[in-house]
Design a protein that fits this description.
286 residues; mainly alpha; rod-shaped; disordered N terminus
């Protein structure tokens, strides 16, 4: 089977780079972005905890060491302890990564709807207008357009190759589709592990904060010399702040993770559908 050189692009310095090298560079940038987001969100969580939740106006006598003003939930949240800023940071990470995933997956689908794009590609192939189908992929852009374009380019190459029989040509098309999709999938699934991790650890961090708060509450009650129902109730309510933050973050992350997973499945389904159409049209017409 004949070999095809990897697609190349030209950088700002005029250096020729292969497509895998370009995507590897992009992957490194995305890793750097993820690390920066985690650090910045945790830092913002700490700042919110110290300067907003810990604002003296939220407490009796203007002192954060005193009890929160009655009905002031910011002061109550501040009393949740040192794990509260981490829980806030996890919530901010979830929101930030979800915005990034929403933008990325929206671009991956391309400019027009994926269903309409696949239908137009099928129509052009039936008319034997491969070059126009490739031009349509360039206009579509995104993951779907990229994978279909690579497969169509491979179709042009094998179509007129006398060294390959029909079965070899079909195998070459299927291999091109699989390789192109394998290069695009990491971009689609990037940062999904962060959301999946937050789904698991947000609730655990909330529970740890609650347990620590309960320990502090009962320890204070034990050393007070006499049962103090008000102090115990206050300590419990402060401890439950961690549970509320953890469960809220985990719930949001779970919903968004499932939503983005369904979007990725839809994109891969459309790619598989387009690849099936290309192979079937080739077998029927060429």
């Amino acid at each position: 089977m004949s070999q095809v050189d990897a697609p190349t692009t030209t950088g700002k310095t005029g250096t020729s780079l292969t497509l895998p090298q370009v995507r590897s560079s992009g992957a490194a940038l995305r890793e750097f972005f993820a690390a920066i987001v985690v650090v910045v969100c945790i830092a913002i969580g700490i700042l919110i905890y110290v300067f907003i939740l810990g604002n003296p106006n939220n407490f009796e006598g203007g002192d954060p060491k005193n009890n929160p003003i009655q009905g002031n939930y910011l002061g109550i949240a501040y009393k949740g302890g040192v794990l509260v800023p981490i829980a806030i940071g996890l919530l901010l990470i979830t929101i930030t990564m979800s915005i990034e995933r929403a933008i990325t997956l929206s671009r991956a689908g391309g400019k027009m709807s994926m269903e309409a794009f696949v239908q137009q590609v099928e129509y052009l192939l039936e008319q034997d207008r491969i070059d126009e189908a490739i031009a349509l992929c360039d206009k579509q852009k995104g993951t779907v357009g990229n994978v279909v374009r690579e497969t169509l380019n491979r179709l042009k190459q094998v179509k007129s190759d006398p060294k390959l029989d029909k079965d070899q040509k079909v195998a070459a098309l299927q291999k091109s589709l699989e390789e192109s999709l394998a290069l695009e999938l990491p971009m689609l699934e990037k940062h999904m592990t962060i959301l999946a991790t937050i789904v698991s650890i947000a609730t655990l961090i909330g529970l740890i904060g609650t347990v620590l708060g309960m320990i502090r509450a009962f320890a204070a009650l034990a050393t007070s010399g006499a049962p103090d129902a008000v102090a115990l109730a206050t300590g419990i309510s402060e401890a439950l702040v961690n549970t509320a933050l953890g469960i809220t973050t985990s719930t949001i992350a779970t919903i968004l993770y499932n939503y983005f997973t369904s979007k990725i499945d839809d994109i891969t389904y459309r790619i598989d559908e387009a690849g099936y159409i290309i192979v079937q049209t080739f077998q029927a017409k060429f």
